[in-house]
Every structure is written in structure tokens, then in C-alpha cells.
Design brief:
With 524 residues, the chain is mostly helical. It contains 22 helices and no strands. Helix 5 packs antiparallel against helix 10, helix 9 packs antiparallel against helix 11 and helix 18 packs antiparallel against helix 22. The longest helix has 31 residues.
Length: 524
């Protein structure tokens, strides 16, 4: 049943030979780079202990980063970036396993390879083996990076194990999702939904002080390891058990379904439908499921995160770290810690929402690759109308999900109109990513998916994480990342339309260039 696994594994390795080392190195830089930065900023044990005390009192940051478990340089470095590493690695695991399982079936390559001497479970085994080994390697590299910086070996190894554990869990989740759905897009969405719920549970646990909730979240299990604190290795047992369970279920379902099909079948459209009268109505038919899922998810997230705003206490503003936090996320000395929290939430919702238009626009590439675009364009439908329908829904959809989030966040926080305004100003920044998606689809269609994901990760990591680690001042990020330019209307800054107009113009320019390139290039 697993005949040919090694050959398929070498194929996976060849396809991942460039991207896998890159993200492994990136996460190692996040881990050790932050530790090196803190070592320079806090040269004495007293200074790092004072910093830890200030951060532990800041409930807003605790919700985002988790509890402070060790008032040391290594412990605070883990506190600062561990949650980002766990989340990014989980997303990478999902994308990798889905690409080499459901993605291969959807493209037809799995059927072609299966015509040879290949066992039924060989593709799944090869994909699981590579992804699991990559997760272990990532954890080990991050641990070695911390050890090489001069930190405790036991704490570094427990940190690496926590990183590996969350990666293995979502490797199994991704493999299971690939058996349930009929498309890579749906499988990625289903697994990402599990990731989002896991993050929300962990966020709620730390933000509310109900730390027992972390036992219900895979990311929470990694937080409970408490590297450089008491190194609670037992917290990894649920992660290993869930990873093994999801992988076993993936094998069970793989043996009971037909190649190219999932356990959750796609619903066919109604026979003789007259609704698809335009490219826009077709685009709506293709995107409505994705939009509904994002809208519901953002509505729930807004309610939960808004409810936590009522429990954010005020803290002393004397510490340098608190001053830096307030400088970054508030624009008025009268702004409260709750104001800073609400702006940080609105900003975070905007950062994540930037993925929606990219996913929506990548549907254009899928339609092109699978030949449906060519069939459609053989009719009187022009390329501009075809792509324009998808672009319109990408822009309108991202505006809708942020509006929904703003309404529920504001209702839960007790300020519906004010908080809604804070989420609405995120829309032009999100649209910039949509413009980038159209541009790369028109100019570099073969690289559209890779560039789109790279743009999303760059925007999310550069200004808030990588920039400070590399010694790049925060204001420099304003030249390359749209979100830091937004007026902080929830934390004391007056609304200014200038940055929003500039972002809108950039979106229009990128979209026009991309559509023009699409009009002139050959379909591939």
C-alpha cells in the first residue's frame, strides 16, 4: 500500500528545496533575533525583570503574546515571538501538506503518478513524512539558534519541542482536511478555520485570565510548555496524541474514498439555472462560500475580542516598555489602555483580512489552469469583465468582513460606531494587497500564488516583528507596509483621509496594470 513512497518523498523534497529552508531560517531568526535584541536592550537581570513585570501587567499584550513565565532575556524573547512562530508554522504546515496531497489530486498529477507502481497510501505517506520531518527540523533549528546565543539548553530544547508540537498537530489537521474536501482551497480553508479557532481560544484564555482554556487549544498546549520557566514537557502529550489521531484518521479516510473526491462532496448547481447571466454573477457563485465563512468567523472573533475589552485594566505608564507600547498604538496621552487594545485588535483584524482578497483573486489563476477560463472567454465575455468580477468581489468582500467585525467588536465593547470606524479605516490597506494580487496575476501568473503568500507574510511580519529584530526603525516600515500609515482613530488620532486616498490610488494603479497585462498575455 505504500510502494513508491521514497520516490514520491524525493519528489516532494525537490519541490520544497528552496522554500522550506527559507521559512526554517526565517523562524530561527525570529526566535534568536529577538533574544539578541533583548540582550542588548536589557543588559542586567534587574532591567529584564522590570521589563517582565511591566509586560505581565499589560493585559492587552498578554492576550496577544501569552503569559510571562520567565523574567529572563530568553524567557521574554519567547514571550514576545513564540505565539507568532507557533501560528506561522501551523499555517506553513497546512499549506505544505495540502499542496502535496489534495493539491496533487486536484491538478491530476496524483492520478498520473498513480498509474505507475505506486501504493494507495504512498502520496499521503510521502507528504506526511516530509512535513513532519520539516516540523521537527524547524523546532531543532530554533532550539540550536537559542543555544548558540548562549541560553539554557533545557529551556531551548523545550522551546523547540513546543514549536515542533504545534507544527505536527496542524500537519495532521491539514492531512485530514485534504481527505474531507474536493479542492485544495477548501481543504486549506477548513484547516485554517481550526487554526483560527485554536488561536481565538488561546487568546481568550490569556486575555481573560481563564488559563485553563489553553488546554482546549493546540497553540495553548505549546504555551503551557513554558520554556525557560518550569519546562512542562507533559503539556506536549495532548499535541502528540492529536497529531497521531488526525494522521490515523487521514489514512482511514484515504482508504475509503475515490481518487479526486472527498468525503464532503461538492454540491452541483441547479439544473437549468438562469442565474449565471454575467461574469459577476459567476464570480459571486464561486466566492460566496469563502465570503460567508470569513464573515461568520470575523463576527465571532469580534464578539469574543470585544468582550475582553471590558476587562483590560489600566497600568502604570512610567516604564520605558509601556511608553513604547503606547507610542506605537496610541496617538494621544489621554488614550486609555482599552483604547490601545481596541486599536491593536482592529489593526490585527486588518492584517489577517489582507489574506481574503489574495485568496479570492487566486481563484482566477485556478480557473485559468483548469481550462474553465478559456471556455468562458470563448464566449463574448471579455478578459476584463471576467477578471473584473473577481476583483470586485475581492474588494467588496474584504470591506464586508471588516464591517461585520467592526459591528460585533463595537457591540461587545460598548462603542458600536466608534469601533466600526476603526475597522473601516483598515479597508484601503487591505485593498493594497488586492492590487498586488491582480498585478502579479497579470504579469507573473506562474508565480502568482507564491508572490501573493509572500506579500501577505511580509506585510504581517515586517513592521511588527522582523523590522525591530533587524534594527530597522518602526517609521521605516511605513514606506513598505500600508497598515502603520492608518490614522489611529480608536486611540486618539484625528481622522485623516490622505493616507487612505494614497492607498486607494495605489490599489487602482496596481489593478489597472495587472488587468492591462492580463489583456495582452497568453493564457497558460
Amino acid at each position: 500500500m505504500t510502494t513508491g513512497t521514497w520516490r514520491l518523498a524525493t519528489l516532494v523534497i525537490r519541490r520544497e528545496r528552496l522554500i522550506a529552508p527559507f521559512w526554517m531560517a526565517l523562524l530561527a531568526v525570529l526566535a534568536a533575533g529577538q533574544a539578541g535584541r533583548y540582550a542588548q536592550s536589557f543588559p542586567t537581570a534587574r532591567s529584564i525583570a522590570d521589563f517582565a513585570r511591566e509586560m505581565a501587567a499589560n493585559r492587552a499584550l498578554t492576550a496577544f503574546a501569552g503569559e510571562v513565565h520567565s523574567p529572563t532575556v530568553a524567557g521574554m524573547a519567547v514571550w514576545k515571538n513564540a505565539d507568532a512562530i507557533y501560528t506561522v508554522l501551523a499555517l506553513i504546515a497546512i499549506l505544505t501538506i495540502v499542496r502535496h496531497t489534495r493539491g496533487e489530486e486536484e491538478s491530476g498529477r496524483a492520478e498520473l503518478v498513480g498509474a505507475g507502481v505506486i501504493g494507495r497510501f504512498a502520496p499521503l505517506t510521502a507528504a506526511l513524512a516530509f512535513t513532519a520531518c520539516a516540523m521537527v527540523a524547524t523546532g531543532l533549528i530554533c532550539a540550536l539558534a537559542m543555544i548558540s546565543t548562549g541560553f539554557d539548553v533545557t529551556g531551548s530544547l523545550s522551546f523547540g519541542a513546543a514549536i515542533t508540537a504545534v507544527g505536527l498537530v496542524f500537519t495532521g489537521v491539514g492531512a485530514l482536511a485534504a481527505q474531507l474536501t474536493e479542492s485544495a482551497r477548501a481543504a486549506t480553508g477548513l484547516a485554517a478555520l481550526v487554526l483560527g479557532v485554536s488561536y481565538l481560544v488561546r487568546f481568550t484564555a490569556d486575555g481573560s485570565g481563564l488559563t485553563w482554556l489553553k488546554w482546549l487549544s493546540p497553540q495553548g498546549w505549546s504555551h503551557l510548555v513554558r520554556p525557560y520557566g518550569d519546562d512542562n514537557w507533559a503539556a506536549l502529550l495532548p499535541a502528540l496524541a492529536l497529531a497521531a489521531l488526525t494522521a490515523a484518521l487521514a489514512y482511514l479516510l484515504a482508504g475509503r474514498r475515490d481518487l479526486g473526491h472527498g468525503l464532503i462532496p461538492q454540491r452541483p448547481g441547479p439544473a437549468g439555472s438562469v442565474r449565471l447571466r454575467s461574469p459577476l454573477s459567476l464570480a459571486w457563485r464561486l466566492h460566496r462560500g469563502l465570503l460567508a465563512g470569513w464573515s461568520v468567523g470575523y463576527a465571532v472573533a469580534g464578539l469574543v475580542l470585544g468582550a475582553l475589552a471590558r476587562s483590560i485594566p489600566e497600568v502604570s505608564r512610567q516604564g520605558a516598555s509601556v511608553q513604547e507600547f503606547l507610542h506605537r498604538y496610541t496617538a494621544s496621552p489621554e488614550a486609555s489602555m482599552t483604547d490601545a487594545y481596541l486599536w491593536l485588535i482592529a489593526l490585527s483584524l486588518g492584517y489577517v483580512a489582507a489574506l481574503y482578497p489574495l485568496l479570492a483573486l487566486l481563484r482566477l489563476r485556478k480557473e485559468e489552469l483548469e481550462g474553465r477560463a478559456e471556455l468562458l472567454l470563448a464566449t463574448p465575455v471579455s478578459r476584463m469583465r471576467w477578471a473584473g468580477g473577481h476583483l470586485f468581489l475581492a474588494l467588496a468582500g474584504s470591506a464586508l468582513i471588516l464591517t461585520v467585525a467592526g459591528l460585533t467588536l463595537g457591540l461587545a465593547a460598548g462603542d458600536p460606531l466608534g469601533v466600526l470606524g476603526g475597522t473601516l479605516v483598515q479597508i484601503p490597506a487591505v485593498w493594497v494587497l488586492a492590487g498586488v494580487g491582480v498585478l502579479v496575476f497579470g504579469l507573473l501568473p506562474r508565480a502568482a500564488a507564491g508572490i501573493s503568500w509572500a506579500a501577505f507574510l511580509f506585510v504581517n511580519l515586517f513592521g511588527e516583528v522582523l523590522g525591530p529584530i533587524m534594527g530597522i526603525d518602526y517609521w521605516i516600515a511605513k514606506y513598505v507596509v500600508p497598515f502603520p500609515n492608518l490614522p489611529m482613530v480608536l486611540s486618539g488620532e484625528e481622522f485623516g483621509a490622505g493616507p487612505l486616498l494614497v492607498m486607494t490610488v495605489i490599489t487602482i494603479a496596481c489593478s489597472a496594470a495587472g488587468l492591462t497585462a492580463l489583456k495582452r498575455r497568453a493564457l497558460v
